[in-house]
Specification:
17 helices
Length: about 425
Amino acid sequence: MSGLKEASPSIWKNGMFVRMFAAYSVSIMGNYFDMMALMILFGYVWKAEPMLIALIPVAIALPQALLSQFTGVLADKVDKVKLMMVSDLLTALLTLLLLAALHPRWALFIIAMRSVANVVHFPAQQGLIKQVVAEEHLLKAVSLNGMVMQLSKIIAPLLGGLIVSAASPQVCILMNAAAFSLSALILLNMLKQKRLESSRSLPEEPVPGEQKLTFWQSWRQGWAVIAQSRILWISFLTSSVGILFIQMIDVQYTTWLRETAPDRPEIMGWLFAASGFGAVVMMMFLNRFERLRGYGWLLGGSLVCIGAGFGGVGLLRSGFSVPLLLVYGTILGIGVALYSIGFPYIIQKHTSPDTVSRVSGISNSIASLCVVVAPPIGGLLVQMLGAGPVFVSVGALCTAIGILAIVFQKLLWREAAADFHTRLDQPS
């Protein structure tokens, strides 16, 4: 065992992180208000065709899939705070423009343009975390962001439902525009503080003989970082499988629960709430540690839990016990948390400050591509085989791959794998 270390200052004493976390929290909460409002606007106000409704996630994900890896290069080359601030301002303006849309097709176009404006935010934020957060606080930073996202998934639909019933979906969209405007103001304050601190420090001396890479050289370097690191490309491969499985049948819960509980539409909300609860509990647990190194347990365990949850839901029959559904939802949430914390943490730990945005952009591009490609595949399988068998089959396959990742983690994550109990540091 290693000797005792001096307690490091709390992450909440890091003013730059606090500002960045506040901006993220405000914007992510606004995002989920907006998403729920769009579903109601398309489905109940405009009474749009199912295909147009299905294009909402495509309009959001396609620009991310096409552009994220390239905006990651941009985020590594320019001031990340300024980039995020401009992105938030453009997102707020396009959200206001969305209020003027009179037809679903115009709304889809604006949603896609808003996604283009926002595409730089994730890689820039990941790169900024690496810059402003100390090494021992990386896990806490990642887990705090994950907790805010999961809590937003629970809180926003509940509050949004009350707002929509009392006013209109447009009020929720307006709240999202206000949230991104507030986020931009917080980032402006952060930018001023950053410039003040820079003015007090000596300017950096250029490295003799250093050559600046072109845009395309930087982009290739991002992929090279992944290809040359066994830990990274194995983690990318494992996480991509998980995302593909999740996106393949995530939108099919409605189909299956409509068959097994046709008179209880509120069951869907309970399942999502249980998933969010499981995710938050696991994230709170992981937040107790300074660092994690059992990567097979993180990513493989994520696949096992997600597979078990999917399989369990697929085995439900008419008249099923609601507490059983909540158990499966909680297990799903635990799996989502292990991925949501584990994968970004691995990227943060195994990239340098000048490449983390590029690698994060590539990860976001791959994840968004799965969002575009996987749902039609899942829908086709459900039409051919039925929702229940697809849930069980995908769940079993997902669980099997997760078990293999855990069993062979010493081979797969050679540099990082070890016994789970010995490689989790003591809680901080």
